[in-house]
Every structure is written in C-alpha cells, then in structure tokens.
Amino acid sequence: xxxxxxxxxxxxxxxxxxxxxxxxxxxxxxxxxxxxxxxxxxxxxxxxxxxxxxxxxxxxxxxxxxxxxxxxxxxxxxxxxxxxxxxxxxxxxxxxxxxxxxxxxxxxxxxxxxxxxxxxxxxxxxxxxxxxxxxxxxxxxxxxxxxxxxxxxxxxxxxxxxxxxxxxxxxxxxxxxxxxxxxxxxxxxxxxxxxxxxxxxxxxxxxxxxxxxxxxxxxxxxxxxxxxxxxxxxxxxxxxxxxxxxxxxxxxxxxxxxxxxxxxxxxxxxxxxxxxxxxxxxxxxxxxxxxxxxxxxxxxxxxxxxxxxxxxxxxxxxxxxxxxxxxxxxxxxxxxxxxxxxxxxxxxxxxxxxxxxxxxxxxxxxxxxxxxxxxxxxxxxxxxxxxxxxxxxxxxxxxxxxxxxxxxxxxxx
Amino acid sequence: xxxxxxxxxxxxxxxxxxxxxxxxxxxxxxxxxxxxxxxxxxxxxxxxxxxxxxxxxxxxxxxxxxxxxxxxxxxxxxxxxxxxxxxxxxxxxxxxxxxxxxxxxxxxxxxxxxxxxxxxxxxxxxxxxxxxxxxxxxxxxxxxxxxxxxxxxxxxxxxxxxxxxxxxxxxxxxxxxxxxxxxxxxxxxxxxxxxxxxxxxxxxxxxxxxxxxxxxxxxxxxxxxxxxxxxxxxxxxxxxxxxxxxxxxxxxxxxxxxxxxxxxxxxxxxxxxxxxxxxxxxxxxxxxxxxxxxxxxxxxxxxxxxxxxxxxxxxxxxxxxxxxxxxxxxxxxxxxxxxxxxxxxxxxxxxxxxxxxxxxxxxxxxxxxxxxxxxxxxxxxxxxxxxxxxxxxxxxxxxxxxxxxxxxxxxxxxxxxxxxxxxxxxxxxxxxxxxxxxxxx
Lengths: 413, 441
Known about the structure:
Chain A is mainly β and 413 residues long. In chain A, 6% of the residues lie in helices and 56% in strands. With 441 residues, chain B is of the alpha/beta class.
C-alpha cells in the first residue's frame, strides 16, 4: 500500500530538473529561496527543520505549519561538437518540488517538528529523436525526505537539534536501443523502480553570538538509495534480437544522495534588515558510477556501468531581507553552485556546469497568524563543452537555464 | 497593501518576460567553407563511392552514399547541388541486393536476394553482364562499382561489347561508341576530366587489391607501375587551376567482415573440439593445416557436413575435404595483399599537396578493429566495430558499409577537410542513418 501511494505521488509531483549542482534541488523554503537559499545561520521558522534543526528551538510561537511549493521551468539546449547543425532541446515537464513543515513547542526549550521535502530529483526529457537518444530519452528521479525532528535550547543563546530522515524515491530511465527493424522502428529500454526505504539524519547547532550576529552549523548525512527488482521493459525489439533483450528482466541500482555540511552567518545591522551568508560543502564524491545490474543478460551483459566520479563541491550563498513596512518583507539573494561533474564526465542526465542563481522574494503577513511568501529564482548555468568520453555520455555543448517561481503559506498559533 | 500588489505584478511581469525571451542559446562557431569553393563537388571512386551496400547498388544505398551525405553538409556552407545517377523510385532495387530475413537455428543470418523493382534493362553483348537503366545527364557522383585504378584509362571499359565491360559505367555513357571523348568508348579518366569540379574526393584503388583478396587469391593484383601511371592520369584530369580535393587511401581489406567473420582461430578451435583439424587448399594447390594467418572467406561453407567416401565430415575438417582455394586467402596471398596496399597507399600519399589533402582511411579502419573482443569506437553512446551485422558499420555483404557506416566515413572525411582547408563544415548526424535492419517478426 505504501509503495502504491508513493508511486502516485511520484506521478503527480515531479521533482525538479537537475537544477542545482548534480541532481540536488535546493528549494526548501519560499522565504529562504528569496534570500539566495541561505538560512543555516538564521532563525528561519519552521524551515529550520531543513536548514538547521538547532535553530528550531528558538521559534517564537507555540506551533506553526508551513506548506509551500515551486514550479521549475527548465530548459537545456544542446549542440553537437563542431557542428552547429545538430542541436536538441529538452522538453522538460514543470518540476514541482514541495515542502511541508510542522513544529510544536513541547515546552519553552524543547520543540518537536516534522518535515517532508524533496531535496533531490530530476526530470530531463530529451525525447527519442535527438542524436544522443541511445544514452538518454528521459530520466525521472525523485527522492522524498520525511524528517521527524527535535530541537533543544541549551541556553538562551545555544540550540541543538537533530532529525531522522526517512527517504523514499523512485527512478525511471528511458533510452533508445541501437537495434532497428525493417519497418524503421528503433528499440527502446525503460528502467523503472521504487527505492527501498533508506535512512539518514540532519543535525545542527545554532548560536546567537550577539544581538546582531548569529552562527549556525548543519550537517545532512549521505543517504544511499537502492532500487531492488526494478522493472526492465523493452519495446520494438525485432524478433531476432529478442533473445538479447529478454522479457521479465529486473534490475538493481544504487544512487547516493550526498552529504551536505553547511556553515551560516546571520547579521542584523538594524531591526529591519537581515543579512545572511552560507557556505556548503557537498560530498558528491559518493557518486562514483551509475551501475545497473540485470537479472538476465541485456545486450549480452549482466550489467551496465558508466563512470560518474563526481567531486566534492562548495556552494556560496548570500541573501538579505528588508522589512519595508510592518508585515511586508522584500528579499533578494544570489549564489554560486560549483559543479561536481569533472571534465569528460558530462552526461545528458545532468548536463551540469557551475551554476549562478539570482533570487527575489516577498513576505506578507495577512494576519497575526497567517503569512505568505513568494519567491522567484533564476538559475543560469555556464555553457559547457565536454567530450563526455569517460561517462558514456553525449559529447557536445550544453546550456541550461531555469525559472522557478514559488509560493508558501505559513500558519502559526 | 496596494504596494504589495504593485510589486507582485511587477514581479509577475518580469517573470513573463524572462519566460518568453530567455531560452538557452548556444553560440556555436559559425560554419564556413574556409579556402574551399564547393559549388561543384565531384566524387570519384568505386562501389563505396556509389553507395553500394548489401551486395548491390540500389536507390536507398545511393541516397545514403558518403558523397551524398557530404554534399548535404556542404550545402550548409554554400555548396551547390549534387547529382547522383539514382535509380528511379519504380526501379528502386537497382541491381538487387541482399536482405536479412532471419537466422538459422545455429544463429547464422539468412540472406535473401531482393529481385523485384530492379533496374535491369537487358543482357549485355557478352552474354553474362546485365545492363542497367541508363542515367543520361551528367553526374557528380562518379562512383562506379567494380572499377579499379587499373581500369581508369581503358577505352571501352563502359562499352557494351562481346568481350565484357562494366555495366555501372555503361549506364553513365551514351550508346554510340564515337566520338571517343564523349561516346561509349570514353575511358573513365576522360569522364572525370569533363566533370570540371571545384572540389573533389577520390577513393579509388580498393578493387585493385580487393578483387584478388575476395576471390581467395584467384584474381590479379594491379602492378604498382600501372597503379601509379593511372593515378597520375587521374590527378591530371582532376587538378585544373584552382581545384582542391581530398585523396582517400585504401583500408586493409583483411580487416573487414568478409575476412574476419569466419575467424580462422575460432574455426580451428571448433575443429579441435571435434578432434579434427582445419585444412585449406593454398594458392599453389597444396593442402595443409590452416594457421591463424590464413583468412577463411565469408561465403565459405566451412563446417557444413559433407559426404567424404563413406564418412560424413564437416567441410574443411579433414585433409580429404579441405577448404577450396577460392574459400581461403592464405598467408602468402594475404601478404601480397598487404604489400600491394602499402605500395598503393604510398603512391596515394605522394599526391598530397597544398591543394590536395589525404584521408588516412587505412588508419581509421585499423583504429576501429576490436581489441580483446571490445569495440574501440563509440559515438553518441553506440559502439561500432567491423563485426558482421552486430558491428553496425558493415552491410550484409561484409565488404560495403551500412548507411550509418557511410555517414561515419563522411564525417571522418569532413574532419580531415576542415583540418586541411581551414573550413568549418558541420558534420552529419550519423544517428539519422540506419544500420543493419532486422525483420520485425
């Protein structure tokens, strides 16, 4: 029953295209997106469940609930090496990462919370006609994190918190198979599976150094997602080649959701102005290869493996919030997310490059209990040309951009 | 409150502008013909140039010939029209060709000749050469299946006469034998001279060794002197003032599926497994045990059970039922092929100049040979090798290429053209061209 519901979730709520480094999707809070997705060193309200559980204990209301979501409109252009004549463009569906947070104060110092969010995911759709179709037609990857959290204020300046991540996900990958029939059709392969339940944690420390200055440290652990007995489906395989692509094949695969260590600062030069800066270190080196093990030989081999060899990267973020009037906040931010993909390893799944993000946002208090946040993030990845000779990818030049509007609703009591 | 709505509408407006006007764009270096004038491209060559595939010349093969693929790319940088001697749609199967209709229980391909919609117009005066529908207007794809460098200066090579002739050249010439410079007696080199290209490719010489090799050493190899004399004549015919071109050299013919599919090493293992040895008849008529330096040819019936005296023995697995001379290119014959290929390639390389580039197709085909059973060439996530059927490069005759193979060759030539003449001719999308196609059911 559980997996059925999650399968339905997956179809209704596609997570975002690979719009951060690798396949990470950093869209955890509408307020924080507006501030360049800073927040490790700030009191961010309910979203401290994600940004820094240590800060959750200082939330100023007895309880609060936040619901938010974004729409990722992303586009990737491709041009073949030394040929302006061979081009392609993705037709990605709008990604819809979401977040739900609820926090309840057990007493003055101890708070409990629950977060559900989607920090990793990707839907890339190139179609089955482009020159790279034997590497990828479509990849849909989604991970949902469910995180019960507790946070405790040790002193009125120092808070600690920890959450346990329960992670579920699913993956769907489609490729063309270079086997043709006399009617002109080409074979296809589709891998589809839900992940086994996986566990991780999210821990943080928050310290209010002075009235104006706050510091936070946060660590989100690596989570290995594993698909066991996923379905392998073939289409349009001519009879003579069917022995090579047997029906009833299943696959196993593994994909790491990397760890992230963040250090954040918050600074309030005046009552109305909040400034923030974050640095994150993402443990992408956990992603060494993409390997599928098949229950029966496919194309003459019991597995398919391609190198990824991601490297650890830093993300630098700055953000600001200014209270224009009581109950109305204007926000802005920027970040630089270095790519984990080394030269030679670029793939059409995540044609990644150093990515630059610019964001704006608005916060508005509708009443004492209800507030709204709206954000808009523009992501521009550097144009990148790669031989893709180490990853089984598609050589060429890639350029990605994304527009991500989002809205969130907060309720506190 | 007012302010809020004002601000959000500005935001929405900004978003709208972004969404409609900011698709990702890639600045590709602009294409250019560099030093080349591509208004009239002429391709000179043999069956490979004609688009021959699957044991025949037919319309879809012609449409996917490497010169046709290149001419399409040339059009992107100012290239002109390119006329090929196409068979009509009604006669699309041209000379006929082989089609894959299934596999035997043993996994061997079943190849069936296509015999309808042919372009055969009758029998030649020699009583053995079929005549094909003529193509009267001047053409730029001068690929003539079967032609050797040895033949290019021969008057009457395309003349329907009782002593024999080349029907693919015949169909490009008028019926009347005279006048000699434009009639049926015209030698190939004169037709080439009359084509007046601004840019040419020449891939000739394969058949000067291939005919010998595919016959198991029963034909003849062109002499080096003859090859050089005729090559000189070709270059003189082509290289008028201002003309530039590429000369393409000859791949090692023993690396193609016709010679490698029935690999001697694995046949010997099969024989050993049956407590036997593999025997061949050499070019000198001697019967001896096969070595790994001998090449068993694709059409050989090796291993087929045959009655020898009172016993049934797989063909080749006994000195009394050795493979025939015509089924094997033996070690000594293969050495002659290698030597001639080297000599011819030296002669071709010597023609490189400021106006003539060399395409080292020999090195290219060597580089795609499998190593330790693994393909060495991968383009756009597809592996390519000279393996029969599964290697994606070679068509069902084991000698000529698939459309995909021809596209990869066209891209290799374009690469070399770009290097030689500072041009930026975009390469073709080879994935748009088919490989070997299988029956649906």
